[in-house]
Amino acid sequence: MSNHSAYEMLAPSIQRALYKKGWETLRPLQEQAIHILCGTESDLLISAQTAAGKTEAAFLPILSLIQPNSMESVRAIYVGPLKALINDQFRRLEDLCQYAEIPVHRWHGDVSSKSKKELVKRPGGVLLITPESLESIFINRSESLRHLFHSLSYIVLDEVHSMHGTERGTHLRSLLSRLDHYTINLPRLVGLSATIGAPEQTCHWMRPDQPERVKLLLDENNQKSVRFGLFAYFQDHEEQSEESKLDESKSASGKQALINHVFQSFSKDKNLIFVNARSGVEFYTDELNRRAKSIGKPGQFLIHHGSLSKEIRQHTEKMMLGRRPYSTVCSATLELGIDIGKVRSIAQIGCPWSVSSLLQRLGRSGREEGAPQRMQLYVVEPLPIGENEAQYYPELIQAIALTELMLEKWVEPPLSSVGDLSTLIHQVLSLITETGGVSALMLYHRLIKAGAFRCVPQEVFIRLLKKMGQEDLVEQTEEGDLILGLKGEKIVRSHDFYAAFSSTPEFRIVFQSRPLGRLPTIYVPEVGSHLLLAGRRWRVIEVDHTHREIAVKPAQGRKQPLFTGGNGVIHRRVRQKMRDVLSDQTVYAYLNPTGKELLQAARQAFVSKRLQQTDLLPLSDSKTIWFPWTGSHIQSTLLALLKHHSMKVTEGLFSLEIEMNETQLSNALRKIAKNLPKPELLAPLLSHSVEARKYDEFLDDWLREWSICQDIIDLDGAVIELQNALKSVINH
């Protein structure tokens, strides 16, 4: 085997495993990772495309290092975001570990209690686990934590981009800090991701006290060729209701043309067809299978999304691994690295919210050596009516902007989660349960000073604890320790406590006792109504409100189901790139003819309104549209600033419509820029529009508004957009 210097650093048993698996060489990425992990004491963050060998880059050296003493306790933990991903990695690691006689364990909801008890009794080797299952160990096996993890040396964090900047990531970071309390030495961290927008921020998230300890390893030797097309379709009449869209005789011509193209392009080979909303996944699966059935290929298109039953999702994954070529219509559930075999091409219906998501989905194709990555992105634009942002065909322009930023190799940085007091409440309850009772000072030290919530000031934490006491989540003993209150005990005992993120109450959908999926309780259909679910058509025959169960039977009619879920957060640079796309005359070779026509029409409208020179567009003597071309959070801050000054405002996707003429608005913006209010005065104006986290209901107004100030309000960014608007007025 070549590359001897890295290869010879591996344990002999791992060398034998590679030989028996037929490996002839190590990839450069793996060589570098071996040198860093075997030759230094550093942590490591690996950023490389899907199928670049990241897992082996982490575990070849880790297994070599723990092999001599693999049974002292659990020696290495792999944390993955999905049970299916853990099962995939378990199969991959089992092959390597059997040669080294290192045990590999899984711990999640589908693993038997017997297997878990055996691990607790005789811990060792590698443990693969989700953040929620790690939480369950803190809650239910607290007396075994030191026995399980005292010699823990390595923690591998997979798909780290999907964690950082989210409630789940804050939860995981807190669990890692708490885990340090039970280990003899500080475990080394290895982060894995295909898309990292701001590596220095991720390094700081991984190791808050010593971010310089995290070495960054970027794989620049495994760049694949990309075949990409953007297909736009024009819906030449007014937007229809959801019911009429689903009436096969009245479907919009633009959408039908899109479906025809997807069917022609993706009815052969193995492909993934991503749709942004679960209701859309159901609609397109039904439409595509209707066409497949007409040519004698029923069931050609499979389905996968988070509201389907585990059995249906696993069936889809199994079928994709088989020999027959299927295409799966899916939501973000297949965006991460679950093994579903060799996918040839990706379809993306509707513009995604981020470059990161676009890259992740593109990366699901072309996993074979030398194979290109393929994607076709589809958008449908309705006929614009009146003077508004629709005349600039925003979905098409955003799709072009994301594509261009992807080609520039730019990715969004993580969102701020500094103000996540909901997860702090969760961790207070968890730590009290783990210890049986703890002082406020120890809570502060473990969770704030040495934990994941270092940006939470002491006075905010004290106020939070007092509010938790008022809500009966915690109470104080005569000795001064905090213990769970009655409501706190009830919350910790609930089946969904292990997850720090919220889940909507749901009804189970069943056919002859076989689970099909779930629907939110706020969207429960009536008896006799029709429903699309699991890619099939159903009629509701019974609704059991007591047991939250809906019985269905096969039917011919259909109605698109409704699910909860909001829009994504758009970064400022994406909106700025949209403005650039409209301002210049670049011809994009990846656009279809309709896309080129719509782009030209949007550019003509943009120039005719002189929006390349000004951000303010007068509509009448009493109304003006402001195009700040900025990110979601800055636009929300601008909206709050205008409302704070009693201005009547309507928010669009990327514009603000204000009931003032241009001169009045310019004068008002100057006054705002000269006398900015404090963020805490703006937070109440946004509190009703900000999506609540899981335990936000236990916050008082002051705490909720503090949280909004940390994570949503961006006064510095708003000032820049105010200045840009005023400059454009002067230049105009």
UniProtKB/TrEMBL annotation:
Broad EC category: hydrolase
Keywords of the record: ATP-binding, Helicase, Hydrolase, Nucleotide-binding
E.C. code: 3.6.4.13
InterPro entries membership: ATP-dep_Helicase (IPR052511), DEAD/DEAH_box_helicase_dom (IPR011545), Helicase_ATP-bd (IPR014001), Helicase_C-like (IPR001650), P-loop_NTPase (IPR027417)
Domain Helicase C-terminal: 258-422
Organism: Rubinisphaera italica
Record carries keyword Hydrolase: yes
Protein known as: ATP-dependent RNA helicase RhlE
Molecular-function GO terms, alphabetical: ATP binding; ATP hydrolysis activity; DNA binding; RNA helicase activity
Matching PROSITE patterns: HELICASE_ATP_BIND_1, HELICASE_CTER
